[in-house]
Amino acid sequence: MSDKHAEVAGGGFAGLTAGIALARAGWSVRLHEQNDELRDFGAGILLWRNAMLALEVIGVAPAIRAHGVVPDVYATSLNGEMFTPELAGYPYWAITRPKLHELLSDAARAAGVDIRTGSKAVGADPSGALLLADGTRLEADLVIGADGAGSAVRNSLPTLTQERKKYQDGVCRVLVARPEEFAGPEWNRVIDYWTLEPDAMRILFITTGPDTIYMGMMATTSNERASRIPIDPEIWSARFPHLAPVIELAGRATGGRHDAYQTNRVTPWAAGRAVVVGDAAHAMCPALGQGASVGIVNAVELAHTLGQYESVDEGLAAWEAKQRAMTDAAQARSAYMAETRTLAKGNGFTPEVMETANFVLDAATPETIA
Ligand code: 3HM
Q1: Which of 84, 292, 304, 339 is deepest in the core (most CB within 10 A)?
Q2: Secondary structure (3-state) at 185
Q3: 291-306 and 13-24 are packed helices; what angle lies between their axes, rounded to 10 degrees?
């Protein structure tokens, strides 16, 4: 058990996960969320085995199994032709992002994380302090910047370099109430619908349970009408007429968001006692369905590795050395898949793709793997 103290900037998936993992290892943890409420603004998410193992380590996986679903099939449809890849041995769950966030928030509170909402971090001091917008300086053994792709903590650390790249596509993500037409068991599936002509448009249909459907609606960012929130039902239904009932609902959904595909590669991830996790460290294209999951895995492994070293600096270096190759590979693969739109061809779950999904973190024990 540790007697160390951590200050965490950011109450998203990576920040909450790091907070839970450290608190469970005996750290005192204070977590700062700039919004007045701790909540997620996203739609849905797939969690592959790597994320579930990490969530198992922090005790959250049973709740995911209770509140999420295991889709029956993962199919790809290109111009109406269906491909159904063999995914035996690669388990995955689907859940809404607000529910995943709620489960992590509950676990953070239960683990004793002191959560401060309306508290905005503006930077970190590598000697061990988090700096807040109101001028407060909070000393800590460890400062975690889990403040997203635009991370103020990262940007305040001059020794952390960042390469950013934008890609051609973007995605509107919405959560809709599951309508009657899609109530049947044949819709308990993930179906990745593509059309590539005259330009790429795609609807990733993911069941997130009996009540909701997550729709990832991808288009080139130059297709302005298809990149719009709220969804423009006319342009989407023209391409995917058989999905018109859910597209209508997507058009009326509130809380949707559009994100352009982008990658930020940060090196190194730490400066002294300050470290970045999640999108602040390695935002990636969503093609692998691994953006949030790699952040969750790395956050759990961070707490585990720090437990093996007396010195925080040494622990951070060991952690980065362990997680870097898997993370870089996930970023490179998801960028390649996004650029080439390989998922449109079906059977996109190649051994390279599954390497990320099957990554086993050191923190996993035989019980968590079982
Ligand atoms: C789960 C998932 N998979 C792929 C994409 C994508 O290529 O945009 C998004 C997702 O949420």
Answers
A1: 292
A2: helix
A3: 20
- Cα–Cα distance for residue pair 97/82, rounded to 1 Å: 27
| Pocket probe mutation, ligand 1, options 45, 46, 340, max atoms within 8 Å of Cβ | 46
Tell me the C-alpha to C-alpha distance, in Å, between residue 153 and each of 20, 61, 160, 233, 301. 20, 29, 10, 39, 20
Q: What are the pLDDT digits (tens) for 231-246?
A: 999 999 999 999 999 9
Residue type, 342: T
Q: Where are the domains of the chain?
A: 5-164+260-369
Q: How far apart are CA 84 and CA 26, in angstroms?
A: 46
Nearest atom within ligand 1 for CA of residue 287: 7
Query: In angstroms, what is the C-alpha Rg of the chain?
Result: 20
How far apart are alpha carbons 326 and 359 in whole angstroms? Answer: 8
User: Residue with structure tokens 């390469």?
Assistant: 163
Q: CB-based burial of residue 28 (10 Å sphere; 0-12 exposed, 13-18 middle, 19+ buried)?
A: middle
> The tokens of 239 are what?
């391409």
CA of 334 to the centre of ligand 1 (A): 10
Paired tokens of 245 = 């009932």
Please report the ipTM that was assigned to this predicted complex.
Answer: 0.93
CATH number for region 5-164+260-369: 3.50.50.60
Closest CA to 219 of 206, 246, 244, 238: 238
Per-residue model confidence as pLDDT tens digits over 58-70:
999 999 999 999 9
pTM > 0.95: yes
At residue 79, the 3 state secondary structure works out as coil
As a whole number of angstroms, the distance between CA 18 and CA 278 comes to: 10
Three-state helix/strand/coil letters over 126-163 = CCCEEEECCCCEEECCEEEECCCCCCHHHHCCCCCEEE
